[in-house]
UniProtKB/TrEMBL annotation:
Protein role: Specifically methylates the N4 position of cytidine in position 1402 (C1402) of 16S rRNA.
Family, per entry: Belongs to the methyltransferase superfamily. RsmH family.
Protein name: Ribosomal RNA small subunit methyltransferase H
Gene Ontology molecular function: rRNA (cytosine-N4-)-methyltransferase activity
Gene from which the chain derives: rsmH
Any GO CC annotation of this UniProt entry: cytoplasm
Subcellular compartments: Cytoplasm
Source organism (scientific name): Accumulibacter regalis
Record flagged with keyword rRNA processing: yes
């Protein structure tokens, strides 16, 4: 990793420790970002190790273009396409992966570069796409979506109780001209609601909701988790860092279900030993950033890391 970035990787040491890295192992960093986790993984890998890193953001992939470490391959891929992406990279998926790391959500460079359209601070085209090479921008979607669709997205993904009022305001504004910039959208939301939380901008929840929707973030997360279980070796680790309750709810439910035996009706004539065994075991308790890390990087405050290990299948 040859380039430096102001981006501060959250739970860096904790995540790498949780992977329990084997020097000759094969690992996946599903969210390369600016390479903080990848750099730390490479430091622990031996010459026979391999790291495959994904990112859907072409800027993040471009940042790694000068990397010469033969153990690292950075790919312009969505982590929701994990299994197919590994096959495209020539990885023997059937032999299994030793660890998968997912650092979910938007990165600091994406937020801080106003031209990307993620931030309600400043005024820039309302884009919000993590992959700027394809898909619909937030402005385009807001220009065609119905009032009900906008309400549902803001309510479900932003947990915003003023979702209906905001959607109504957006649709009304379209009668004059489209909502095309981050500044226009933020001003419109601020006119409609007052934040309930000290220090939080009134536009925070709406911007979060639109970003999640435009990038299908929760759908991608729901897709990658079962694929990770498939590609991991027995003893392989899955480490997931999420940043808000919607993400963590999906991760928590998936890990809980996979760590428990299949639930069948009580009165079925089956012994516990006859039930399919759990596919994984949970490793430790959920981990949050320390006070020192939060002081240095306030965006770490909402981070939560969950870890699981794939179990071996018992012989019949």
């Amino acid at each position: 990793m040859s380039q430096e970035s102001p981006h501060q990787t959250v739970l860096l040491q904790e995540a790498v420790e949780a992977l329990a890295i084997k020097p000759a192992g094969t690992y996946v960093d599903g969210t390369f970002g600016r390479g903080g986790h990848s750099r730390a993984i490479l430091q622990r890998l031996g010459t026979g190790g391999r790291l495959l890193a994904f990112d859907r953001d072409p800027q993040a992939v471009a940042m790694a273009s000068g990397e010469t470490d033969a153990r690292l391959l950075v790919m312009h891929e969505r982590f929701g396409d994990l299994a197919d992406a590994l096959r495209r990279a020539g990885c023997a998926v059937e032999q299994g992966i030793d660890g998968v790391l997912l650092d979910i959500g938007v990165s600091s460079p994406q937020l801080d570069e106003h031209a990307r359209g993620f931030s309600f601070r400043g005024d820039a085209p309302l884009d919000m796409r993590m992959d700027t090479t394809q898909g619909e921008t937030a402005a385009q979607w807001l220009g065609r979506a119905s009032e009900q669709e906008i309400t549902e997205v803001i309510r479900n993904y932003g947990e915003e109780r003023f979702a209906f009022q905001i959607a109504k305001k957006i649709v009304a504004a379209r009668g004059e001209r489209s909502v095309a910039t981050t500044g226009e959208l933020a001003a419109l939301v601020r006119q409609t609601v007052r934040t309930r939380e000290p220090g939080q901008d009134a536009a925070t929840r709406t911007f979060q909701a639109l970003r999640i929707h435009i990038n299908q973030e929760l759908e991608q997360l729901a897709l990658v988790l079962p694929q990770a279980m498939t590609v991991l070796k027995a003893g392989g680790r899955l480490v997931v860092i999420s940043f808000h309750s919607l993400e963590d709810r999906i991760v928590k439910r998936f890990l809980r279900d996979e760590a428990a035996p299949d639930r069948l009706p009580r009165k079925l004539p089956l012994r516990a030993a006859d039930l399919p065994p759990p596919r994984l075991r949970l490793i430790g308790k959920p981990v949050r950033a320390s006070a020192a890390e939060i002081a240095a990087n306030p965006r770490a405050r909402s981070a939560i890391m969950r870890v699981a290990e794939k179990l071996a299948r018992k012989a019949a």
